[in-house]
Amino acid sequence: MLKSKAAIDRFYHTLGTVVLVILIVWTLAPLYWMITTSLKETAEVYGEGVTLWPREPTLENYRILFEETNFPVYFRNSLLVAIGTTLLSLVFASLGAYALTRLEFPGRRLFARSLVYTYLMPHSMLFIPLLAIVLRLGLENSLEGLVFVYLGFTVPFCTWLLMGYFMSIPVELEEAAMVDGCSRLGVLFRIVLPLTVPALAVVAFFSFTLSWNEYIYASVLVADVDAKTIPTGIPNFIVEDVFFWGPMMASTFISAIPPLVVYFIFQRFLITGLTMGAVKG
Amino acid sequence: MSQVLPEPDAPQATESLSLWEHIKNDRRTLAFVFLLPTTVVLISVVIYPFFFALLISLQVKVAGSPGKFVGFANYLELFRASEFGRVVYNTVFYTFWAVAIKFVIGLAAALVLNQPRRFNNVYRTILFVPWAVPTVIASLNWLWVYDEFNGMLNTLLLSLGLSDNVIAWLAEPETAMWAVIAVVVWNGTPFYTMHFLAGLQAIPRELYEAAEIDGAGHVAQFWHITIPSMMHVFTITVMLSTVFTSTSIVVVNILTNGAPANLTQILPNYSYGLAIESGRLGIGSAVNVVFFPLLVIFIIALTRRMLRREAG
Q1: A267: burial class by Cβ within 10 Å (0-12, 13-18, 19+)?
Q2: Helix B281-311 crosses helix A123-137 at what angle (to 10 degrees)?
Q3: Helix H or strand E encompassing B168
Q4: Hey, are the CB atoms on A151 and B141 less than 8 Å from each other?
Q5: Cβ of B307 and A113 within 8 Å?
Q6: Residues of chain A with C-beta less than 8 angstroms from the C-beta of B311
Q7: How far apart are CA A86 and CA B30, in angstroms?
Q8: Cβ separation A130–B141 shorter than 8 A
Q9: b/e map of B87-122 (b: 16 or more CB within 10 Å)?
Q10: Which residues have C-beta within 8 Å of that of residue B250, sequence separation ≥ 6?
């Protein structure tokens, strides 16, 4: 009996290992292809000479990318938009979540509910009216316009997420501080926010990656090459140059790095934080 | 408490001071000030555009110029379009299979990661990586993996002797939609794995220990403890993912843009093509409005569940 139970456990463990290996190969395969392609010479990328491993790794594709394409501009624009959106999301969401969890006012529940609705509003529903609105305001082809539009998607989720954390902080702490003469803003910055660093990390990660990755609004609202971000800029390499796959894979590799770095740094916060909104029932 | 000195010579200063004091002390005013930026953003970028979308769908409109009201003409044209039925079918097919496959792989990954194993943190980090890869980047990478003559997939299949000819994965009617779904699955599975793993770890150990004493095997434990305990997580994850998957334009737009012959065309990208590529905002908006009621069911159900957090 005991022996067979151990055998069964070992069977499931081995099965799990097999599944794990398959999943890891499936996950890494396209990334492997991206990185090796970016290190190949043009002759090795096409036709008869296709290899699975670069014969002589070269950084030529990266040189082309930075010296002969508009990629540095796209990269800078993406960075500005992502950082701007992240900072504003942090401020707006902290203030909003504090008001929604700590201050009594009529319509509080309705406001909280509308946050969820706006978070779930599909992006595809809004790109057409936003194009019309942005044209009328003269914000097309501007990074400010993109930041403004992205806030519409980051702020509801971020506020919602922070509300969950703020509710878990005992109000007594704040009351004590206010008795000692601390103002509401002082309470928010000196007591509440320092206690919610993991949540702020999630908010920052979410806002950063969303604005770094966003494609539809960027492609609708920005036509000017000098205001394009990475997601709308690099697909253009397809038509600009016949021999583009080497530099293209160099550009996708570099573009994947910032969100990956943020992910590696914040991952222990992310897994608890991001699931909280949905899993905590 | 600090003493506030009276300032008889400066009445204006006192007034503005008291206004600031008023804002600081009145909860409603303070709440209004704190929520003002969020309100401005939500109204101008989400709520107003939403209603504007309904209005545009009743107009013939080109970007940058005022529209002309045409009633339901856009909707009539849409329903009469020969490809519309096909696009609706594709959208349902694509969403169903993408969600179903992500669910199965995500659950398998979560179960495996939940087993005791050395270096589990490393495996978890690797399996979550696609989630941090931007969808545009993932789509471009896969476009290159699928490349007919130079892509990794055909190169591998040929060199392993698994196929005699190159396959145009994104151009063949039989494979195109599955090729699109594979990319969506690759990019979107970690979202499931993450939720499911958190759900698994929240199941009390005692339940399994009790079942073990009663002699229940792994399979019985899975069906009678794991699955029932995870129902809430399953529902939330599937509903969220259905909304996001069915409305995502990026993968289809970059891989096929609907080709071959509208076989991979889905509603959001169809709308994008009509509105942006053909410049017809009215009918493009009508596509989204037709699609919206289907989504509303999920959105309302999800909102209910997410708001339960407040009560509980």
Answers
A1: middle
A2: 120
A3: none
A4: no
A5: yes
A6: none
A7: 24
A8: no
A9: bbebbeebbeebbebbbebbbbbbbbbbeeeeeeee
A10: A215, A216, B135, B136, B139
- Residue B86 CB coordination number (10 Å): 15
Sign (positive/negative) of CA torsion A45, A47, A51, A55? negative
Q: Give the pLDDT of chain B (312 residues) as one tens digit per residue.
A: 344 444 444 444 445 556 666 666 677 888 888 999 999 999 999 999 999 999 999 999 887 778 889 989 999 999 999 999 999 999 999 999 999 999 999 999 999 999 999 999 899 999 999 988 999 999 999 999 999 888 899 988 988 888 888 899 999 999 999 999 999 999 999 999 988 998 898 889 899 989 988 888 888 999 999 999 999 889 889 988 998 999 999 999 999 999 898 999 999 999 999 998 888 999 999 999 998 888 888 888 887 877 775 443
| Sequence-separated (6 or more) residues with CB below 8 Å from residue B98 | B181, B184, B185, B188, B245
H or E stretch covering B59 = strand B59-60
Entry field: residues in chain B: 312
**pTM score above 0.90:** no
- Kindly report the nearest CA distance between residue A256 and chain B, in angstroms: 6
Query: β-pairing, B68-69 with B59-60?
Result: antiparallel
**Cα–Cα distance measured from residue B31 to residue A104, given in angstroms and rounded to the nearest whole number:** 8
Q: Any residues with CB less than 8 A from the CB of B248 and at least 6 apart, and which? A: A124, B135, B184, B268
